[in-house]
Amino acid sequence: MLKPVFILLLGFMLATPMAANAMNIKDYHKKVMTDTNGKVDCAACHGDEKRKTVPDATRCSSCHGAPQDVAKQTQRPADAGHSVEPNPHDSLHYGTDLPCTYCHQEHKESKVYCNQCHEFTYPQMKR
After folding, report:
1. CA 8, CA 5: separation in Å to the nearest integer?
2. What Gene3D superfamilies does the annotation carry (predicted)?
């Protein structure tokens, strides 16, 4: 007769590969990173590196465009004045050089890097 602890351990071991593959991924990325078998392609962002490495910004650019292009897409109207928050992709401090992963997190909640010193809300930011 199998002991309950063994059954629980066996169940965990069998479920682990699926659980590792079902990592918390934002819905909009899950659509493009999941193959026909339902397996998430971690290499799409992480390349051949270890899965826990932070993706290089060129991985983001391959789908979303160059940082300068993203900055143009999020550009604020010139006559908006101070009532509109600055363009987060064209920072007064960093220009377009700040890595995407400073704000945009895939496996946890995204945070506005600038809010370490400022208080911006960026309501359109996908968290």
Report:
1. 5
2. Flavocytochrome C3, Chain A
Residue 52 lies inside a defined structural domain of this protein: yes
Whether residue 90 contacts residue 96, with contact meaning beta carbons closer than 8 Å, is answered with yes
Residue 85 pLDDT exceeds 70: yes
Question: In terms of Cα–Cα distance, which of 125, 107, 127, 9 is closest to 53?
Answer: 107
Beta bridge partners of 40: 34
Domains contained in the chain, number: 1
What CATH number does residue 64 fall under? Answer: 1.10.1130.10
Q: pLDDT (tens digit, 9 = 90+) per residue, 94-106?
A: 999 999 999 999 8
Which residues touch 75 (CB under 8 Å, ≥6 apart)?
Answer: 87, 90
